[in-house]
Amino acid sequence: MIIIHAYINVKLEMRKAFLDHAKNIIPASQNEEGNISYNLYEDTREEAAFVFLEKWKDQTAIEIHEDTVHFKQFIGELDSFLREPIHVDKYEV
């Protein structure tokens, strides 16, 4: 199993628009065959600081995910929301 923590810090004025944007990728990703879990959380101490917590069956599942329309659309529009680059931690368990 592979766990991904994708940290996304959004411009404060773009918070609601980002959440609307993220609503599309979450259920689509959760329904993918190799997905174990896929959730978005906001830091309770820092508004507009988010983390996607993802669990995938294996690297192949992640590669398939990264080739989906919903992932490409999400990533393709993400830069307009960001106040700093995304930080991703990846763990194999």
Helices and strands, with pairings:
Elements: E1 2-9, H1 15-30, E2 35-42, E3 49-56, H2 59-66, H3 69-78, E4 87-92
Antiparallel strand pairs: 1-3, 1-4, 2-3
Q: Looking across the biggest beta sheet, what order are the strands in?
A: 2-3-1-4
- Shape designation: globular
The portion of residues assigned to helices is 25-40%
What is the rounded distance between the termini? 5 Å
Taking the sheet with the most strands, its summary is: 4 strands, antiparallel
Radius of gyration: 13 Å
Summarize the structure.
With 93 residues, the chain is α+β, with helices and mostly antiparallel strands.
Question: What descriptors fit this protein?
Answer:
93 residues, alpha+beta, 4-stranded antiparallel β-sheet, 3 helices, 37% helix, globular
Task: Please tell me about this protein's structure.
This protein has 93 residues and is an alpha+beta fold. It contains three helices and four strands, in the order E-H-E-E-H-H-E. The protein has helices at 15-30, 59-66, 69-78, and strands spanning 2-9, 35-42, 49-56, 87-92. Helix 1 (15-30) runs antiparallel to helix 3 (69-78). The radius of gyration is 13 Å and the shape is globular.
